[in-house]
Specification:
It is a single chain. The protein is mainly alpha-helical. The protein has two domains: 15-69, no CATH class; 90-211, no CATH class. Helices cover 60% and strands 6% of the residues. It contains nine helices and three strands; from the N terminus they run H-E-E-H-E-H-H-H-H-H-H-H. The protein has helices at residues 2-10, 43-46, 71-88, 95-122, 126-131, 133-161, 168-184, 189-198, 200-204; strands at 19-23, 30-33, 53-55. It has a three-stranded antiparallel beta sheet, covered by helices on one side. Helix 3 (71-88) runs antiparallel to helix 4 (95-122) and helix 4 runs antiparallel to helix 6 (133-161). The longest helix has 29 residues, at 133-161. It starts with a helix and ends in a 7-residue tail after the last helix. 27% of the residues are buried.
């Protein structure tokens, strides 16, 4: 399953590579799709439906993406990177939150660089790009987990700041566990980035008979 996720992100897609984003009114979470939702473009159906934002994919440097680029996958990733980065501005000052912010910034940077390398390499050396599939998925999971831990810590701090003492110990624990995650798990992100970007030679050095 994990291999299929990476493969789906890298397969060439059609030229029409816009990403559609809207907010689910029931959960408040952002939804993404490579195809427009059923109500998009229909004035009758759009009444009362969530507003849809069209996120056009642009290649790095601002040029239009070639048709063979995995445009939807990359656009979705880069939108999420931007959302992660916007959280940093909301993190309150303090020892724990400063550490979380620093670790998450490093994690997002590592993930962005690893993603850019895979996209740039895949068309010319598919084996090298695919060799980093496992560390890339680990890297993605670790950074996404850090994002969620930071969100939980923010929510806990908001409760404490509002004077909610009914679960004060629980809220403080949320902040502490987010700090632990930043120090002990998110800190692995730069190493995983190195495995993706620089680890192909070691993976491909042995032929089948040497295993």
């Amino acid at each position: 399953m994990k291999g299929l996720v990476l493969l789906a992100a890298l397969l060439p897609l059609p030229a029409h590579a816009d990403l559609y984003r809207w907010i689910d009114p029931q959960t408040g979470s952002a939804k993404f799709s490579s195809t427009p939702p059923p109500w998009y473009g229909d004035p009758e159906k759009e009444r009362g439906a969530p507003a849809v934002e069209v996120v056009p994919y642009r290649a790095r440097g601002g040029a239009a993406a070639p048709e063979t680029k995995p445009a939807v996958g990359v656009a979705a990733l880069e939108v999420r990177w931007s959302e992660l980065l916007r959280y940093f501005a909301s993190l309150p000052p303090g020892t724990d939150f400063s550490a979380i912010r620093a670790a998450l910034s490093e994690g997002v940077r590592a993930l962005d660089e690893a993603t850019g390398w895979i996209v740039a390499t895949y068309s010319s050396d598919v084996k090298a790009a695919s060799a980093g599939a496992v560390p890339f998925l680990e890297l993605f999971g670790i950074v996404a987990g850090g994002w969620q831990m930071a969100r939980a810590a923010l929510a806990a701090q908001a409760k404490l700041s509002a004077g909610d003492d009914s679960n004060g110990s629980f809220y403080k624990a949320k902040i502490s566990t987010a700090r632990f995650y930043a120090d002990h798990v998110l800190s692995q992100a730069p190493g995983l980035r190195h495995a993706v970007v620089g680890g192909a030679a070691g993976v491909l050095a042995l032929d089948e008979g040497q295993f």
